[in-house]
Amino acid sequence: MISLKPLAYRMRPKKIEDIVGQQHLVAPGKILARMVKAKLLSSMILYGPPGTGKTSIASAIAGSTKYAFRILNAATDSKKELEMVAEEAKISGTVILLLDEIHRLTKPKQDFLLPHLEKGSIILIGATTENPYITINPAIRSRTQIFEVKPLSEHDIDQAITRALTDKENGLGNQKITLTPEARTHLTRATHGDLRSALNGLELAVKSTSPAEDGVIKLDLAIIEECVQKKALVQDKDGDAHYDVISAFQKSIRGSDTDAALHYMARLLEAGDLPSIVRRLLTIAYEDIGLANPNAAAHAVQAITAAEKIGLPEARIPLANAVIELCLSPKSNSAITAIDEALADVSKGNYGEVPAYLRDAHYQGAKKLGRGIGYKFPHDYPHGWVKQQYLPDKLKDTHYYHPKDSSRYEKALKEQYERLINFNE
C-alpha cells in the first residue's frame, strides 16, 4: 500500500518540472532540461550532500523520458543485479540505472558496466556524497558527465512542504494539518537543505500527534523540534534569530571578543547547527583575519575537518580552539578588499588587452603574431624577479592590494610589495 511508503519516497517528482531546487541543472534551458527535451541522455554522476535530490533527479528524468528506471547500490548489490538490468535493457531498449554510492563500485562490476555504457543500453546515473574527481574510477568518470547537486534553500524546502501538505494523492492533503509559522520556519531551516530529513520530520510529527477536538492536527514549534531533533535558537515571531546569532558570532570574532564569540557559538551548537558554524568560521578565517595571521586560517581548516569527522558533541572542542585563536589573532581584510576592487573593475568593463609578450606563445605561428616576444623570464634573473609590466596598459598604474600593519607578517608583505612597486632599475 502506498501509505506504507515514507512521505519522502511518495513525494519524489514524476517529471523534471516537478524537481524542487537544483535550478542550475533542471530549469528550462539548463543542461538536464535540454537533455530531456532533446531525448539525448548521457550517463552522469550527481554528487552532493544527502537529501538534496540526487534520487529525485534520476527518477524525474526517467519519468520525463518514459524509460525503465532501476535503483541499485554499488556497495550492497551484486554483479548479478547488474546483469538483470542489462537483460532488461536488451528487451526494453534502454534502462536508466541509478547507482547509489557509486564511489564504492568494484572493478568486476565496473568492467561489466562499461560496454553497456558505451552502447547506451544503460544510462547510468551515479549518486555519491564523495568528490567524484577523487573517489570515482577514471574509466567510469571519463564516460560520464559530472554535475554537482547543491543543498536546497529554505525557500526550496518550504515549497516542498507546501506540496506535501496539499497533495491528496501522494502527500498529506487528505488530512487537516496546521503548522505554526515558528514550526514551519524551523522545519525549513533546521534540516540544512536536506529535504528528506524535513519530510521525514513532518511525517513523524503528523503521525505522532493526535488531532484536536476539531479534527485538526496542530503542529507547533515544540513538536517539530522533537521530531527533527534540533532545537530552535529562540522562539521569535519574525524568524530572524537564526541569522542574528550567526551575524553576532562573526562580528564578535571580528571584534576580538572571545567570550561573546564562544557564547554565540554555544547557541548554534545547542541548536545542532554545525553546518552554519563551519561555513561561518571558514569565511571569518580568510575574510577577517586573512593575511594578518595565515596560520590561524590553516588551523581553522584543520579544526573544521576534525569537527566534521567526529561530529557533535565532541566537535565543540576543536571548534572552540579555532574560535579562541581567531578572536585573539590580529585582523586584516586587505585580501577581500583587494579582490573586490579587482572584480569591480572587471564588472564595469574596465580592462584592456593582455600585453603581447604575456600571451600564450606555445602554438605554431604565435611568434608571427608577436606573442611572447620580449617576455622577461623571472628565473633568468639573479633574485628570481625582474621589473616588467603585467597589467594591461589602461590599468598599468592600478593598485588593488592595500596592505595593513596589523601584524609582523603582513607588515613584511607590505614592505616587499612596496619594494617591488618602487623598484628602479
Can you walk through the features of this model?
It is a single chain. By secondary structure, the protein is an alpha/beta fold. Helix content is 49%, strand content 8%. The chain is built from 19 helices and seven strands. Strand 3 (95-100), helix 6 and strand 4 form a beta-alpha-beta unit. Helix 10 runs parallel beside helix 12 (221-228) and helix 13 packs antiparallel against helix 14 (258-270). The longest helix has 17 residues, at 294-310. The N and C termini lie far apart (84 Å). The relative contact order is 0.07.
Brief description of this entry?
The chain has about 425 residues and is of the alpha/beta class. It is built from 19 helices and 7 strands.
Count of beta strands: 7
The proportion of residues forming helix, as a percent range, comes to 40-55%
Which secondary-structure class do the elements indicate?
alpha/beta
CATH class of the largest domain: Alpha Beta
Question: What's the shape?
Answer: globular
Biggest sheet features: 5 strands, parallel
- Strands of the widest sheet, in order across it, are 2-3-4-1-5
What is the average of the pLDDT values? 88
CATH topology of the largest domain: Rossmann fold
CATH-level-4 superfamily name of the largest domain: P-loop containing nucleotide triphosphate hydrolases
Determine Rg (CA atoms, Å).
Answer: 27 Å
Distance between the termini: 84 Å
- Low-confidence stretches are none
Q: Compute the number of structural domains.
A: 4
